[in-house]
Structures are given as structure tokens and as C-alpha cells.
Amino acid sequence: MSFYEMSFELTNKCNLSCLHCLRDKADMRSYIPVELFDSILKQAKSYNLQHIAFTGGEPTLHPHFSRIIDTVVKYGYTYHFVTNAWNFLAVWKILNDPRFPGRLSKLSGVSISLDGATEKTHDYIRGKGSFKKIMQAISILKIKGIDISVQITINKKNFHEIEQMAMLASELGLKRLFYAHLEPTDRAYEQDLVLSPQQYREAEQRVERLKSVMKIEINFSLGHHEPLMFFQCRALTMYSPNVDYKGRLTFCCQLSGYTDAPEQELDTVADLNTVNLYDAHKMWADMIHKFNIDKIEFIKSGGATDLDYFPCFYCSKYFNKIDWIQKYKDDPWAKDYIKTKHRHAEKKHISGKKDR
Fold this sequence. Notes:
Layout: E1 5-9, H1 34-44, E2 51-55, H2 65-74, E3 78-83, H3 88-95, H4 102-105, E4 107-113, H5 119-126, H6 130-143, E5 148-154, H7 162-171, E6 176-181, H8 186-190, H9 197-213, E7 217-220, E8 242-243, E9 248-250, E10 268-271, H10 277-301, H11 311-318, H12 332-340, H13 346-354
């Protein structure tokens, strides 16, 4: 339980409409207030927290992005942010302002979402012109010597470019490359993006081969098939608590704001607008304990399937995020959901949350 870094969804607003996006677009106007952000970082100093990560939405669209960065610098943390790089020239002016040298000195790197090894593939998924914007941003960051990571979310449209993506990242001289599984959404099914479980495993095997032959650092983001049923991820080990754009501590960044999910957000831990970080931390610990107890009972029931070894898919079922998937009844993910839904004891973890 290291509490090494904190992740903040600065805003749910985004300037793109990617076909595979996990986030609910119902609220595109809210963003975390600078005053609340400052208060959370001040409290976090007691934990000897080291690093701040920014996600979204598109985090650079926060209307006070410069003040957010300056707050990080004020408390002495390092930081990085995830971006689609569409408005990177404007962002770079903020980061490179000579009046505020800490904005660059505390920047540990930039993570860019790149979903195709070719312009055609990436722009199909993320929008026309976005590939060129990314190449422009990478050029600027390379010249300035800033670490660059890219992440590709594997789906049917870029499945054939897994190896090509590694070659591109290497040729660009990037620091590291992440491959991630697509988490199912209704829109992703409508766009025919969702791979089968067998294709997920094939993708993992191909990435493992790349790791053994490429010099660039290659990783698979969490959510891939784990050999241990009781695997403990970054959320369960409290490595990186996540705060959403409404200022709420959530169980996990992957579950936060999941599109098409029911309005009752079972993964919300505490509202940091009204609860201090320390009490919220205790509530999170209680929630993790309940989650683990329920999982032990689930394992004991003997109902686990091979797909429950994909930890993010397991959690999406546990927290009732993908009930809509049942309409795709012939899909293997949907079949598994229907088969195991009753074993996830929804009433147990809902009542456990209310009792805290």
C-alpha cells in the first residue's frame, strides 16, 4: 500500500470523439477546482507522495491548467500528463514559459495516446488530422529532451499493426511503449472494434515477443490476462489513488466515469469536497477489503471462468458497469457476463458500501 502517486482526472471535456473512448460524455463542462486540488495536494504531503499524474478527458483543456501545474510545483511533486496532443502547441507555451522554470523541471514525461502505426488507422479511430498533431508534439518534446511514452489501445482496426507500432516507436526514439486492451463499450461494439478473448491473448503473446527483441521499453497496461485469480492491481495495493473531475476519490481510474454504466456509481469512494483525504483513504481501505472478501467468496463458489483472469473485466462486472453488454448475447464477453453475473453478489457489495 505505497500511495506513491495520485492520478487526477482534471476534466471530462475532450476535443476528440474517439471510437473506443471509455468515458461518459454526459458532463463536458465540469473540471476539478484549483482550490480543491491545492487542498488535496497539501494533505497528501503527509504521505510523502512523490508524483502526480493527469488524465481526463483531455487534461490540458482544464481552463486553469497553468495554475494546476504551478500548484504541483509549489508542493515539490513531479508530474506527467496523458494527452491526445491536439492542442499541444498551446500547451507547450505554458510549459516552456521562462517565468516558471519549475513547469519543465518537474515534468517527468508526457504520455501520448497513439492508436495506429499509420496515419490512416489512427485518424480512423481518433479523428482526421490527429496523427499529424501527435508527430508535431513528439518532435517538440524530442528536441527538448523530454521523455515520451505512447499507448495504443488494441482493437480490430489496429490489431494488424501491433508489431508495426513497436517499430514506429523505436524509429521515433520514444522512451517507452504501452499496449492496452480495449474495455468494452456499447459504441465500441457498434463500431466493430471489440476483439475476442482469444485475440486478446494473441495480442499479449505478440507483445511479449516484441519485449524480447526490441530495445525500446515495452509494457502491457493493466487489464491483461493474469495467471493468478487473486491478482492485486495498482488500485488494490493503493499505489495510485484516483480523483475524478468532480473531486471524488474513486476505486480505480479505469472504472471512473465508465460510459453507459448505471447512474449509481458503485466505485465512488468519497467526495473530497466534503471529506478529508485521510478519512477518504480509510473508506477506500474498507472498500478494498470488502472487494477482496467478495472475490474470495467468488473463487470459493467455483464459478470463475477464464475471462475472470482479465482483472479489469472482472471489476467491470463486479461494479455493474457493463450490464448493457447482454444485448450482444452471441459475443463471448457477453456470454461470460450473463453466465457469471449472479455470482458477483451485487447486493453484497452495494450494501457493504452503504454500511460504511
